[in-house]
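TL;DR need structure tokens for one chain.
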Amino acid sequence: MAGVALHSHPRPRPRLVRRGGAHGFGPHGYRVRAVSGESRLEARSGRGVTVRINGERPGKGKRPGKGPLTTLPPSLFPGPYPPPLIFSPVQVTEAILQALQTAWSHKLRSFFTLLGIIVSVAFLVAVVAVIQGMNAYVRERIGGAIVGVNAFQVRRTPIAIGLIDDEDWRAIQRRPIIAPEDVPYVRRALPQARAIALQSGWPTPQADIVWRNKTVGDVFVFGVTAPFQLVQDYQFAAGDPLTDIDVRERRPVVELGYDIADKLFDGNVALAVGQRIRILGQQYLVKGVVAKKGTVLGQSWDGFVMLPLTSFEALYGRRKTTVISVKMSEATLVQPGMQRAEEAMRIAHRLRPGQTNDFTVDTADALVSFWKNLTRILFTVVPAVVAIGIVVGGIVIMNIMLMSVNERTREIGIRKSLGARRRDIRNQFLAESVTLAVLGGVLGLLAGTALAELVNALSPLPARVTAWSVVVALGLGASVGVIFGVYPAVRAARLDPVVALRYE
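>> reply
TL;DR here they are.
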């Protein structure tokens, strides 16, 4: 032979058809071209082979003989051969392109096929985004606004009372009030505290605030001792803060929230300082205006009037829910401070060892825990709803893939006749199923992200799409494609090529 030219896909088993001469490789030589078939199907099957052997043609006048098929000598295909890939890059790329082409060819059918997965993933991403955003919001904004940063409270009632049953609530109502006489015990136990304050508790009364001929209705009114302003990190847009003398002498002075001063004095909050307002018919001198604190869940935290605690009690009487607020210098000192405050309060209330506390020591973490209890309920419902949608979407994908198998039966027969193995056919349809499902997951992720942004824009609820949501969305899509694509893929792989070629 003059030469051999081979172009082969993985592990071919070529056979040679004798065109003339004696059996085997004689002096006359051979010229054979065995081509698997259509190039596109050949690439899918992974079994196409082209063999060309160049040499002298049989001599003129010599009649070709009739011999059996002769296998090429092993020396022409030196081994060992590498094991075939289960999913070769060519097959994966071809499968993805085929799936996308099929989806594009039948846009409406593909949309309804993926609708279940899109809706389920979008719902999951949006709900998780809102819950994650609310977790951070409760911890950073709500907890800080109510309790303060690096602070805790000694209270008659817990901060989060939403999950307390009736029996526990009746027991709480029998507790003694937190009195000003308790403060010295806490102060002696916590000499390192930055501030220890007393404030009137829940429910906060509301009243109309009157200046000349202007009235602002339903304004929250509460009383505090001077250190409360340090606990809450209040800044002042105008005027001065309350002092211990104001509290001790029960002076008729007030601090206005920014929104109240803005409404009463037409945006000139500095004008409020030194003016006299009326609350329940009593006159009070405006001493200062607290700087704007913003909103929490759409509710303004600047619509209040703050009085010295003694002046407040003269107006409304002593409240049963007075609260001691303690601010520590560092976050690491909060937990030890809470333990010492608990010990001090037990001494102040003369509780014996083993007796249940008749007070509560709370931080912003109590609000976070309360919120997490609510989200735990949501997390038991959301997966069930998502699972139903995912199963429905998976069943639809399986039915569509079965239809695709029927539509492409003849193609499967051609590929098998050209040497495609069951594994090649199975992998092709399985890859198409996964591609469709992942496409649904991606579209659902985009829809869920858009929905979360819409919630951010149109409501006070914060929403935060995390990397975890992206992983779950794509993972769900791939899982659905594998689980519900196995049966159609196996069914396609088991088709008899002879029967498939006769299929019309």
